[in-house]
Write a structure and sequence with these properties.
The complex is a heterodimer of chains A (about 110) and B (about 110). Chain A has about 110 residues and is mostly beta strands. Chain A has strands at about 5, 10-15, 20-25, 30-40, 40-50, 55, 65-70, 75-80, 85-95, 105, 110-114. Chain A is globular and about 35 Å long. Chain A starts with a strand and ends with a strand. In chain B, strand 4 and strand 5 form a beta hairpin. Chain B is globular. The chains are: A mainly beta (about 110), B mainly beta (about 110). At the A-B interface, strand 5, strand 6, strand 9 and strand 10 of A face strand 4, strand 5, strand 9 and strand 10 of B.
């Protein structure tokens, strides 16, 4: 158990809908990272938050947004969903700015858009 | 051309064999990660390297910064090592925490 909790584990929704994925980092970790893993693109970095502030941005679509709350949990909001958004979404957490030697990943949320 | 290339894409070996997975990258980096992803999907971080060599149990990771190349070795491979192994690099600019991932190597160890 990495200590990073993601909910839900599985999500099936229709095109055009909006979903929210949740990540609770390990106790004490201030950074949360979101990644998308699709069959055709592999793993891609989406966005990082550190202590409530956005710190780094990757290939995140405008239809997607994220935030980190005062209790440090994070949510990834995906809207106007398309079939191509079907993927595994992972979050990871770390104490500092960087995903260091001890990088802890959640088990992922498998999103299926139908 | 991808910034991070892994080889081979797929590898099948007999239990006990010595395994090598390679990762080449084309950008300046501050660190390189090796990750393991099991069939259930969960990701485990194996190593983070910025130079030299690290060992953990039967796993050894090396990196050659000049050649922009890293290898992951598994000694005395076991069926439980069957997984996808992913190499990821972190940019060399401070604050660039974006990881760029290779496409992974699917390893299957046959008993």
């Amino acid at each position: 158990d990495s200590g990073v909790t993601q909910t839900p584990k599985h999500l099936i929704t229709a095109t055009g809908q909006r979903v929210t994925l949740r990540c609770s980092p390990r106790s004490g970790d201030l950074s949360v990272y979101w990644y998308q893993q699709s069959l055709d693109q592999g793993l891609q970095f989406l966005i990082q938050y550190y202590n409530g502030e956005e710190r780094a941005k990757g290939n995140i679509l405008e239809r997607f947004s994220a935030q980190q709350f005062p209790d440090l949990h994070s949510e990834l909001n995906l809207s106007s969903l398309e079939l191509g958004d079907s993927a595994l979404y992972f979050c990871a957490s770390s104490v500092g700015f960087s995903l260091g030697t001890e990088a802890f990943f959640g088990q992922g949320t498998r999103l299926t858009v139908v | 051309k991808n910034e991070v290339e892994q080889s081979p894409q797929n590898l099948t070996a007999q239990e006990g064999e010595f395994i090598t997975i390679n990762c080449s990258y084309s950008v300046g980096i501050s660190a390189l990660h090796w990750l393991q992803q099991h069939p259930g999907g969960g990701i485990v971080s194996l190593f983070m390297l910025s130079s030299g060599k690290k060992k953990h149990g039967r796993l050894i990771a090396t990196i050659n910064i000049q050649e922009k190349h890293s290898s992951l070795h598994i000694t005395a491979s076991h069926p439980r090592d069957s997984a996808v192994y992913i190499c990821a690099v972190r940019g060399s600019n401070f604050g660039n925490e974006k990881l760029t991932f290779g496409t992974g190597t699917r390893l299957t160890i046959i008993p």
